[in-house]
Write a structure and sequence with these properties.
243 residues; alpha/beta; Rossmann fold; 6-stranded mixed beta sheet; 3-stranded antiparallel beta sheet; 7 helices; globular; ABC transporter ATP-binding protein; nucleotide-binding; ATP-binding; ABC_transporter-like_ATP-bd; ABC_transporter-like_CS
Length: 243
């Protein structure tokens, strides 16, 4: 599979938090939303998929590769933002993006064009020469997203990407992800904002207490109700399991 795949992925921490036995597939050309309450395991799963954590059992693949055994090969294929945007405070927006482009394998002569394009795409042109430490949290988030998307990766993994974004930033991100999916990228986005992900998602997977518990239909008018019913039913079922 060339998109994103987890089969039986498990990583548990002291106290029982983490993810267990997760199966997930994100196909090329589709936007897949991973939704759950805070603490459900979304970030842990994304870190597993990206090779930031090693599964205790099961397997994960990005673009058909094991992220823990691929070295730098995935740099040009994957774009991600998990938890906090990577931005060097003393560097300008442009310099941060130029560095990100190099790390993602963009050839030197193409870097200025690549950076200019994403500055315009995510509305960052006026911050190109502003040091990242002087940017608002929302603009640093845009900068992190720009760095993750500028090289047009085949696989995109974004954890709560609309955090701190203003409405215009949300719209620009939405359009950028739709363009990349239309070009064939496999896109995985985690969120607890159902109304937002439903606007762009082709598929929605629900995670609760570290396990995949079902899916939702993006066009469902009662999407929020269906989500909470699914989570509530799972919580009740787990309470009934004998210790």
């Amino acid at each position: 599979m060339s998109g994103i795949e987890a089969v039986g992925a498990t990583r548990l921490f002291a106290g029982g938090a983490g993810v267990r036995g997760v199966d997930l597939r994100v196909e090329e050309g589709r936007i897949h939303a991973l939704v759950g309450l805070n603490g459900a395991g979304k970030s842990t799963l994304m870190r597993l998929l990206l090779g930031m954590l090693t599964p205790q059992s099961g397997t994960v693949r990005l673009a058909g590769l094991d992220p823990r055994a691929s070295g730098t090969a995935l740099g040009a294929l994957v774009g991600h933002l998990v938890e906090y945007p990577l931005a060097y405070g003393e560097l300008t927006g442009r310099a941060n993006l130029e560095l990100g482009a190099r790390l993602h394998g963009v050839a030197g002569p193409r870097i200025p064009q690549t950076v200019d394009a994403v500055l315009d795409e995510l509305g960052l042109r006026r911050y190109a020469e502003v040091r990242a430490r002087r940017m608002s949290l929302g603009n640093r988030q845009r900068l992190g997203l720009a760095s993750a998307l500028q090289h047009h990766p085949r696989v995109i993994v974004l954890d709560e990407p609309t955090n701190a974004l203003d409405p215009s930033g949300v719209i620009l991100l939405r359009e950028a992800l739709l363009r990349r999916a239309a070009a064939g990228a496999a896109v995985l986005v985690s969120s607890h904002h159902l109304d937002e992900v439903a606007r762009i998602a082709d598929d929605i997977t629900v995670i609760n207490a570290g396990r995949v518990i079902g899916g939702l239909t993006p066009g469902d008018r009662e999407l929020e109700h269906a989500f909470f019913e699914l989570v509530h039913a799972d919580d009740l079922a787990r309470e009934e399991v004998p210790a």
